[in-house]
Amino acid sequence: MEMTLVGPAVERQPRTLQWWTTICGYADLVPERGVAALVRGRHQVAVFRLADGRVHCVDNRDPYSGANVLSRGIIGTRGDRPTVASPMFKQVFDLATGAALDDLSVRITVHQVRLRDGLVEICL
Amino acid sequence: MGRGGRPGHCPGGAGMTSRTLVVVGNGMVGQRLVEVLRARDGDRTWRIVVVGEEPRAAYDRVAMSSYVDGRTAAELSLVPQGFYDDDPDLSLALGEVVVGVDRAARTVRTDAGRVLRYDALVLATGSRPFVPPVPGHDLPGCFVYRTLDDLDAIRARAATARIGAVVGGGLLGLEAANALRNLGLTTHVVEAAQRLMPVQVDDGGGHALLRRVSALGIDVRVGTLTEALLPGEHGHVARMAFAGGAALDVDLVVFSAGVRPRDDLARSCGLPVGDRGGVVVDESCRTEDRDIYALGECASAGGRVYGLVGPGYAMAEVVADRLLGGSSTFTGADLSTTLKLLGVEVASFGDAHAATPGALELVWTDQVAGVYKKLVVTDDASVLLGGVFVGDASAYPVARALLDRPIGGPPESLILPAADGADRPALPADAQVCSCHAVTSAEVSVAIAERGCTDVAALKACTKAGTGCGSCVPMLARLLRDAGVATSRALCEHFDSTRAELFEIVRVTGIRTFSELVAARGRGRGCDICKPAVASILASLGSGHILDGEQAALQDTNDHHLANIQRDGTYSVIPRIPGGEVTPEKLIVIGSVARDFGLYVKITGGQRIDLLGARVEQLPAIWRRLVDAGFESGHAYGKALRTVKSCVGSTWCRYGVQDSVGMAIALELRYRGLRAPHKIKAGVSGCARECAEARGKDFGIIATENGWNLYLGGNGGFKPRHAELFATDLDGDSLVRLIDRFLMFYVRTADRL
Q1: Which residues of B are less than 8 Å from A87 in CB distance?
Q2: What is the signed CA dihedral for B181, B182, B184, B187, rounded to 10 degrees?
Q3: pLDDT tens figures, B322-347
Q4: pLDDT of residue B123
């Protein structure tokens, strides 16, 4: 449950201001259990490995409570959408789009994720 | 509480108030009159002087029995904060009796020697308990059941009494019996008539009520006339002698054998009274004297005295309107009532005794379930005239709404258990479903049909129905079902089964992982509702450590961190302190942990210590030190057993009759970690004073000389409820056997909350 501090290994993308950052090993992620990562000392993100192996990454901040807790939410589905429920007041977010499924005026930021050599990387 | 009118700045600078109204009596109805008049008399044409006989201002006499269960006089008060203090044109004198009326001079005299002039006088003196003039009725230890002072006296006497008897088996008598039972007395009820609640209920209903009341351990004697009360050696009442020679040893007697209107003030000034008492008033609630009104239980309107508070309030509205020049009338009120007495539902409405010529009766009697339902209909069975329900009054809202109207369906369908598909008579469109917010059945139907309300919550939001007292919520659910909207009890979109059904599926199939269960009986990958519910079921059926393997992903964050998430994402840590007993060394460990991690410390309602502000990464270190000191998680967050509170009990307390701390610790260690559909709280009190508030718990234990009384089904929180006596004088082993089964039953069959 340690907060994952991101190492210096950074791969630069020429055109956009975002670049890929390694978070942790894919094998370190427990299916349907989130982890929180502090990227470059400024961004708190939540990373989830789903039962089917896909990995999603969203902001760790819960917009309703303002607390950085989404990584501790319960993973599931709503219809065919992959979801996380905030542990605070249990609002449900679509992990693919970031939309709050019961309140379309609210959306959390989704970050691209890719797997390279067994490592999880996000684009931020 | 109130003080005489005091000079002061007159609000709004209005001119001198011209007329004076004197109100004799500050009971529920008198107070309602003053409030209604004050609210409508914007330009202060009336200065009001209230003279109340009791030492307390108006309080809720209907709910008075809850005073014995611990509700305070303040909670029962009906007088809004500062109502009499902030208004120079309004004064209340308490503990003062009006002793004479001079109609010519238009003045009243009080026992304090005051003479008050009135332009209008309202008699709101209520009624007095009728005490049968049997020898010994005034012995020490005999009481009436009318005021809070009566209850204080009864409670004081009950502390040293063992056997109590109530003379009178009507509504008030049964309330008094319940009060005595709650005070721990062996209780008897003696009723002269052949049945209980003879006014509201008929023979069939009376017998059902008698069986239900007797089943609660109250000895009921109907058709028994009390002939004499005999004193013991120190002069207190000690024995009751009945006609026919039977007798009964008692320490305390409560008379609640009906009331008589207090019309003596009216008689003393020559105002006519009804043949059964009560100041005669006309439709405007005026007596024969134009300037004198009477309302509530002391008035006889249309030849009837109305003992219920509903008609009293209606009369108060009429008098207030009349005093302001209005012309509204009181033409009588329906005496339908429904109430829950000693846990027994009773309802009586319309022509309950089938007095209407040619009326026919339909009766459903189920002595096994202790249910009696009777309808009175016209000779062609088309119009509902009245009825009586005992044991199950769920049909009362519909029946009450259909009174004196065409039933529009087979009348028996109203009272027969609803066979599937039975076409129950639809509620008339304008029938009132929710009386708190005056929502009719038509409005509810529109909300369902046109505004997309598919469940009770939506109906509440849409129509406000059910947001008051909530007694119409079952009716809302029924209207939804009747409109074809199935309110499903499926756990969530992932499982069609209910929680209880899922419990049996897991128990029978032996499935021990979520993936297996959702693949076999559900769909998708679950959610924040079903995952914790399945986790709880797996835990209750013993599936290894709750964080083992796949189970970890099912747990709520609190169960992961053994702590309760707070609004800023930090956690509250509450170590388990069984029965509230702790050692100095352990206290020191808690203190040092709080100091070293900079935590905020607070004592909890469950007799434990709460450490707040722990960040998620600090929790392992915090728990390492607490566990090393012998602590474990107190589950203050979980849908599990929370605490078993205790009072110090017989080890220390001079009143303790059993070791409540020892029992509380044993129970908490036995049931700790038990996961359940919702949180479970318990308490053990060492004597009848109940300092551990056990009756506010899911299961509560109160010590007696020869063992333990077990109470079940209590609740604090949103809808407080006192746990009901389930079994008495249990030894330790049988107490645990019963609690085991109660908890197993709850864990296996309850729905998710």
Answers
A1: 556-558, 565
A2: -10
A3: 999 999 999 887 777 777 777 788 89
A4: 97
Number of A to B CB contacts under 8 A, please give it. Answer: 76
What residues have CB less than 8 Å from B331, skipping those under 6 apart? B283, B302
Distance between A27 CA and the closest CA of chain B, angstroms:
15
pLDDT average per 10 residues of sequence, chain B (753 residues): 42 60 96 92 91 93 83 88 87 95 95 95 95 94 94 92 94 90 93 91 90 90 94 92 93 93 94 94 95 95 87 92 93 78 85 91 88 92 91 84 80 73 62 78 88 82 76 81 76 93 94 95 95 94 89 93 95 96 97 97 96 96 97 94 96 96 97 94 96 96 96 90 95 97 95 77
- Disruptive mutation site among A5, A33, A56, A72 for chain B (greatest number of B CBs within 10 Å): A72
Q: What residues contact residue B299 under an 8 Å CB cut-off, 6+ apart?
A: B123, B261, B278, B279, B281, B285, B305, B306, B315
The Cα B148–Cα B129 span in angstroms is: 14
pLDDT of residue B382: 86
Q: Is residue B276 within 8 Å of B300, Cβ to Cβ?
A: yes
- B94, HSE (Cβ side, Cα atoms, 13 Å): 12
CA dihedral B558, B564, B567, B571 (to 10 degrees): -100
ipTM value for the complex: 0.86
List strand residue ranges (DSSP E) for B398-458, in order.
Answer: 432-434, 439-440
Mutate to test the interface with A, among B492, B523, B530, B557 (most CBs of A within 10 A): B557
- Record the tokens describing residue B196, joined without a space: 């209980």
Is A63 near chain B, with CB under 8 Å?
no
Contacts of B135 (CB under 8 A, 6+ apart): B228, B229
> Which amino acid, B680?
I
Question: Under an 8 A CB cutoff, do A67 and B620 touch?
Answer: no
Q: Which residues of B touch A85 (CB under 8 A)?
A: 527-528
CB contact under 8 Å between B553 and A30, yes or no, is yes
Angle between helices B148-158 and B171-182 (to 10 degrees): 40
Q: Is B525 part of the contact surface with chain A (CB cutoff 8 Å)?
A: yes
Q: Which of A65, A72, A92 sits opposite B567 (nearest CB)?
A: A65
Report chain A residues whose CB lies below 8 A from the CB of B637: none
Best A4, A5, A32, A59 residue to mutate vs chain B (most B CBs within 10 Å): A32
Average pLDDT, chain B: 90
Could you tell me the two tokens for B217? 């351990």
